[in-house]
């Protein structure tokens, strides 16, 4: 065996050990457990209905929040509009971040930055009181963009952590832990909101403390992730005369050109776009819709425990 062959064999063995490290894989999985609390408690269950209620208290049941030309945002449409803006911003930001993940060694640090910025913005939702609905929109947009950005780096770690034969199993474990972690906090918040009146806590305060718990859960459990994940070198060398911003969009446009040649793949991705967008729309507007149609339209307050309970059933 030549010296180069020995070196290659040694590198492959080290890579195999490096890639299937149990402690590091566990740390990666824990991030799904951590961030799913934001999606279940904040995005799906409480934020949309609570923001709508704050807006209605300020401008009336369907009063105007602001109008810019043909764009009219009312109290009832503020929550969906806020979510749409956050998704729209991700469309421009995430391709650039993908380039940072591929062409730099900053993956872990950037994931950490976006994680804790998002978790902090989520915790600040505890200050949403009457008249602060626009502040709530800004904080949610910021938190949701940071959530999506951290997920870009989180997903990009998977090929670094596992060999190909283990990838599906580890990915599935991440999803499973995420559903369980998000569902567990949802259940704890359901119990808290249900018992809040007996503890002298108003429903509004109970909702705000539940939003705070999601940010604390996200940031707190992520400490385990960042303790165990290791920095990885760049997987690609940045081409000359390119920046991280330009290479992100260059690769995006290159992908679109390639898709024009792969007709069946293009059809699949278009179908998936509509399918996934439909699911995400139902998730984000279900709580405000239920609250408005079942309760507010009859002059009743929307019980937060009802929203948490019905979404908890769906979660499990």
Describe the structure.
The chain is mainly α. The chain has one domain (22-315): Growth Hormone, Chain: A (Up-down Bundle). Helices cover 78% and strands 3% of the residues. It has helices at 3-19, 22-59, 78-103, 107-123, 133-161, 164-195, 203-228, 244-261, 263-295, 304-315; strands spanning 64-68, 71-74. Strands 1-2 form a two-stranded antiparallel ribbon. The longest helix is centred in the N-terminal third of the chain and has 38 residues, at 22-59. The protein is globular and about 60 Å long. The termini are far apart.
Whole-number radius of gyration?
A: 22 Å
Instruction: Report the strand count.
Output: 2
What CATH calls the topology is Growth Hormone, Chain: A
Helix content: over 70%
Question: Mean pLDDT score, rounded?
Answer: 88
Which CATH C-level class is it? Mainly Alpha
Structural class of the secondary elements?
Answer: mainly alpha
Give me the strand/helix succession.
HHEEHHHHHHHH
**Strand sequence of the main sheet, in spatial order?**
1-2
What's the architecture in CATH terms?
A: Up-down Bundle
Low-pLDDT parts are: 1-17
Terminal residue distance: 55 Å
Strand-residue fraction?
under 5%
What is the domain tally? 1
The largest β sheet comes out as:
2 strands, antiparallel
Principal-axis shape equals globular
Number of DSSP helical runs:
10
